[in-house]
Amino acid sequence: EWWEEFLTLGVNISDEMLDKVIDSQKPNQCCMLAYTMGTTGPPKAVMLSHDNITWTSAAVLQSLPYTYPPENQEVLVSYLPLCLINAQIFEIWIPVTIGASIFFAEPNAMKGSLINTLLEVRPTTFCGVPEVWEEMMRRMIQGSIHCASYLLSIILSYSMNLSSPPAPHLVYHKVHRNLGLDRCLQFLSVGSGLSKEIQDFFLSYDIILMPIYGMTECTGPHSVSYEKEFKLYSCGKAIMGSHNLVRNSEQEDIGEFYLWGRHLSMGYLNNEYKTKKAFDPKGWLHTGDMGTVDNEGFIHIIGRIEEVIITKRGEKIFPVPIENMLKENIPIIHHAIIVGNQAKFLSVLLTLKCETSSDTGEPHNTLTQEAINFCRKNNSKSVKVTDIMNNQDPIIDAIIQKGIDAINEQPEHETHKILKWKVLEKDFSIIGGELGRWGSIPSFYEWSKLRPRVGMGLPVVPQ
Fold first, then answer.
1. 75 and 183 in contact (C-beta within 8 Å)?
2. Contacts (Cβ under 8 Å, ≥6 apart) of 252
3. Residue 250: predicted pLDDT
4. How far apart are CA 41 and CA 3, in angstroms?
5. Is 52 helix (H, G, I), strand (E, B) or coil?
6. To which H or E segment does residue 259 belong?
7. Spatial contact of 123 and 90, defined as CB atoms under 8 Å apart
8. Sign of the CA dihedral 226, 231, 232, 236?
9. With b meaning 16 or more CB within 10 Å and e meaning fewer, what string describes 216-228?
10. CA 2, CA 178: separation in Å to the nearest integer?
């Protein structure tokens, strides 16, 4: 009914008038506004031209193996807000270009209903943000999506010689079906924050996540990963016709990424100052992202310029790799934030994996089942965050310290060791203001906002 109503909007528009409007459009004119994610400040309106959108869509399609009707029509799911450029490119413009069938998820998709849509639609390509992949992983670990339990039953059955080993593809197909991804041939990931832990977890289920790097200012994707050009933990290679440079490199070829190509936007709406700051006179976009390009051309992003810590000795430290190592070494940790600007040593704030409200996302005091299982495995009786904070659980304290010591013992951390740490009483969340809309910690988030929660100092845990 609503579709018929939509079609009536064009009844009074003549073909001549439509042709006149189409003929008046120029490739370099603004086609739409897309808003930045707000991870480096208030969201800005980015002007994207007709050429930006059509060229970028075509460039991505030269790399990613989408299929075309009538033989193999793509079936896609749209769930991201359409004010975001990744939603526009991957959920509107590419589907229009290839003649895909698009299904729109419920408004509360990001609060848990997305999995129901996936099970109903069974998309052939799925483009997830890191928050979605993390939520899937959490549900699989907890068993609300029957994947881990199924694999465990297969392993136990075979170990007891009750059956012959099943073909791997049959086992994985069952898991994929429980996720609604059994027809999916591309598992794309857009946006920052896709951790090594998440990639490893899905890889164990034969789901290879393909990270895509880009910004709103470059019409979404700048580099893509796909089967023929893939390297684990990288962001793939630049799309055809675009270029990137690493500038201001001071250590191990790590520097700021500059981007160039027809996908670069027209700038920010009504903000000439910010536009000139982001785009230099030669047409290069200064991204503010730090990373490297390896000798094969694969892009590796390690953080933002604003995140770099400068110690009292003047050393520049990139905290994200250290934070990721902490989460790998200490599985009960959800977030780790390194602090230490103008300090003689590093400190770290830790939050634990805990249950959250399904309605608001507000973190609860109760640990997740995964975290509780970890505690039990290590003879700890803790079930709540408050059982562990303020050094109340010596077993977990020792595990945290051991994980930190393992990092401190690495040669590259000889001059900047983590000497203080603290477990916060509450996990970070969007509703609490510590996380951005898609679960990442905004780089402009002020340390002063956390100071009341941790006190004026961090305790040194006895060695």
1. yes
2. 292
3. 63
4. 39
5. helix
6. strand 254-260
7. no
8. negative
9. bbbbbbbbbbbee
10. 32
Q: Kindly report the pTM of this predicted structure.
A: 0.81
Q: For the chain, list residues with pLDDT below 50.
A: 149-150, 152-160, 162, 438, 443-448, 451-463
d(CA 163, CA 161) in angstroms, rounded, equals: 5
Instruction: Tell which CATH classification among 3.40.50.12780, 3.40.1790.10, 3.90.1170.50, 3.40.50.1220 matches the domain 25-305.
Output: 3.40.50.12780
Which H or E run includes 451? helix 447-454
Strands 346-352, 299-304: pairing is unpaired
Contact 44, 277 (CB under 8 A): no
Question: Cβ(75)–Cβ(123) under 8 Å?
Answer: yes
Please tell me the predicted confidence (pLDDT) of residue 6.
Answer: 85
> Is there a cis peptide before residue 81, judged by omega within 30 degrees of 0?
no
Per-residue b or e along 365-394, where b marks 16 or more CB atoms closer than 10 Å to that residue's CB? eebbbebbebbeeeebebbebebbbeeebe
CB atoms within 10 A of CB 3: 6
* Cα–Cα dist 339/420, whole Å: 10
Provide the pLDDT for residue 413: 62
Q: Which residues of 332-363 are buried (b: 16+ CB within 10 A; e: fewer)?
A: bbbbbbbbbeebeebbbbbbbbbbbeeeebeb
Q: Domain ranges in the chain?
A: 25-305, 308-454
Strand 309-310 to strand 285-293: parallel, antiparallel, or no bridges (unpaired)?
A: unpaired
Closest Cα partner for 288 from 268, 306, 265, 267?
A: 306
**CB-based contact 219:263 (threshold 8 Å):** yes
Q: How many helices (H) and strands (E) does the chain have?
A: 15, 21
CA 77 to chain centre: 18
Cβ-contact 352, 388 below 8 angstroms: yes
Q: Read off φ and ψ for residue 402, nearest 5 degrees.
A: -65, -40
| Closest C-alpha among 302, 310, 306, 348 to residue 327 | 348
Separation of alpha carbons 402 and 397, rounded Å: 9
In sequence order, which residues have a C-beta less than 8 Å from that of residue 451 and are 6 or more positions away? none
The terminus-to-terminus CA distance of the chain in angstroms comes to 69
What pLDDT, on a 0 to 100 scale, did the predictor assign at position 361? Answer: 78
- 434: tokens are 């510590």
Structure tokens at 254: 């790590």
The residues, any chain, with a CB within 8 Å of residue 404's CB and separated by 6 or more, are 326, 329, 348, 418, 421
